[in-house]
Amino acid sequence: MEELVEKVVAPYEEILSEQVGKLCSPLHRMTLNEAPMDKLITDAYQSFTGADLAFSNGWRYGPPVLPGNIKVKELYQIIPANPELFTLELEGRELVNELEKNSENVFAPDPFNQKGGYILRSSGLFMAFKPYNPAGNRIQHIEVQGSPLQSDKVYRIAGGGKQIFKAYDSRKGNKNVRAIELLKEYFIQQEKVRIEMKPTIISI
User: Fold this and answer.
1) Which CATH number do you get for residue 45?
2) What is the number of structural domains in the chain?
C-alpha cells in the first residue's frame, strides 16, 4: 500500500513540498461547536472577500497540524475537497433559518434525522443556542461583527462548496478561486499565522 501511495503522489511531490508560511498555533477538528482548523479556513475566506460572515462545513477529516513551517501538503490535509469560494447575500431572518436547520441536523432527538457533521464553522458570528430545544427554537442570541443580528438587514456571506446554503445556490456568486489557492495566499500574506480561539459559538 505504501508503494502504491508513493507512486501516485510522486508526480506532485514538488507542488506539495512548497513552503507557504509558518503556523504558530496548533490546528485540530476535535471540538463540536468550533475548532481552530476550520477557523483558519473561515478567517481566510473572510479576509479574501471582506464579507460580514464566513462559513465552512464542520468536517471530521484531517489530522491535527502542529506549529511549524506549512507546506501545500498540509493545506490539502486541512481541506482536500478544495471547494470553490462563493459569496451570497442573505437577510438576517434567512440566515437564522439556515443556522436552525444546521442545528437540527446535528442535534435532532431522532437519530435517523441526524445528518452528521458539526455545527457550521464560522468567522464574524457570535451565537448562543440551546442544543436540546425543539427544532427551530434553539438559537437564543446572534451577533454579526459584534452587533445584534437584524432580521431585515442584508448580510454578505462567504463560503466554499455546494453543501452550504444549498437552498440559495441560484443566488451565489462564484469567486473563481478555490480553497487551497486561497489558503496558500493567506499564509504567504500573513507569514506567521496564529489562530486565537475565543468562544463565539456557545451552548447554553
Assistant:
1) 3.90.780.10
2) 1
